[in-house]
Amino acid sequence: MKLKTLKQIKNLKDKRVLVRVDFNVPIKNGKVQDDSRIRASLPTIKYLLENDAKVILVSHLGRPEGMDKKLSLAPVLEKLKQISNFKSTSLEDRFPIFNQLPIVNLEQAKIAIETMKQGQVIMLENIRFFEEEEKNDKKFAKQLAKLVDVFVLDGFAVAHRETASVSGVAKYLPAYAGLLLESEILNLSQLMIKPKKPYIAVLGGAKIETKLPVLKSVLKHADFILLGGGLVNTCLWAKDYEIGKSLLNKDFKKEALRLWKNKKIIFPVDVVVGDLKGKKYRVVNLNKKNEIKNSEAILDIGPATIRLYTKYIKSAQTLVWNGAMGYFEQKPYDIGTLSIARLVASRSKGKAFGVIGGGETIQTMEMVGMMSDIDFISTGGGAMLEFLSGKKLPGLKALIK
Ligand code: ADP
Ligand code: MG
């Protein structure tokens, strides 16, 4: 896939550039808790400013229904100012006075943009305050487009969304991929175009329904897929295992049974069962089908499975991981997931090209302190899965050469 990219824009001087970022970050008491998504778009913002463009940032935050002060982007703007650290230009110059949020209607935005100078940044208030955003309203998208000269999509994590500020506005303007988006597509494409073999994927997470499409697509390229997490429960149940109170989706019996027939798919050989509080737990070997009691739930992969998966991971030249192996939020059910995190990180950067993605997956990699050992960390959870499953992301359509 060849995208039109930011660096191909010939003359950015004085151009008004609408940049759709994903600054949907966790906020507590008016403070940003995790700024990694903001940092991820800094290169694009800086590139534009250093080339004398005028930058108008757009993002959503949470799921507001109409105006909701609690979901203002003001804390995000504060954070952006703190971490942006521009050379030779003062923050006041970069972020002009009228830049105070909220800019909640397009009339206000228009005035603000008219008075902007080159090299300055403003941010629109939470775009979901406009109900037109999620409806992908054409008129609204056109109005947004009228405010500026160029559109840049940088937030890969929203590229799978069909909304006014992502796919809508791009239809009415010259549209380009930002540096973050470009790097995501470049890196993830490596997993689909001639990945080095053996290619091992580790797939977990809570629900089978969200992972089946990506499973099918990864199967086309990968040599083995190691399964863990709640999605395994449905597979076990489909094969007449007693699974007690485990998370389950009964709608996917057929698909689950089909997975067992595929030799590329590797299932756990043992699991950890217990109560949600982690007080009572034990390892159950999966060679018998009626071992798990009604009061128990499957909450992690077991030690024999970790050993088995280690062998596969240690053979990999391409390695992808998405989805927790168990209910890692509660000890001792974190052991499977944290072991996989360490294994994937140890094999990456050198022996294998290692890629991870997904909110919880990244969180657990942070827990083991090995983020810097991974070759590529995707900022997209849902978007990464949809991209890997071969779907055409709506946000990319207008950016394709
Ligand atoms: P990611 O955000 O990395 O894509 P997912 O959202 O797919 O990961 O899944 C992570 C969640 O799945 C975690 O919150 C974890 O607690 C849950 N999970 C995994 N295995 C189980 C299980 N056996 N029972 C209950 N929850 C599980
Ligand atoms: Mg998740």
Q: Would you kindly provide a written description of the structure presented here, covering whatever features stand out?
A:
With 401 residues, this protein is of the alpha/beta class. It has two domains: 6-179, 3-Layer(aba) Sandwich (Rossmann fold), CATH 3.40.50; 186-388, Rossmann fold, CATH 3.40.50. The chain is built from 15 helices and 16 strands. Strands 10-9-8-14-15-16 form a six-stranded parallel sheet, with helices on both faces. Helix 1 (36-50) crosses helix 2. The mean pLDDT is 94. The chain binds adenosine-5'-diphosphate (ADP) and magnesium ion. The site of magnesium ion (MG) has 4 residues, from helix 14. Adenosine-5'-diphosphate binds at residues 204-206, 229-230, 247, 298-299, 322-324, 326-329, 358-361, 381.
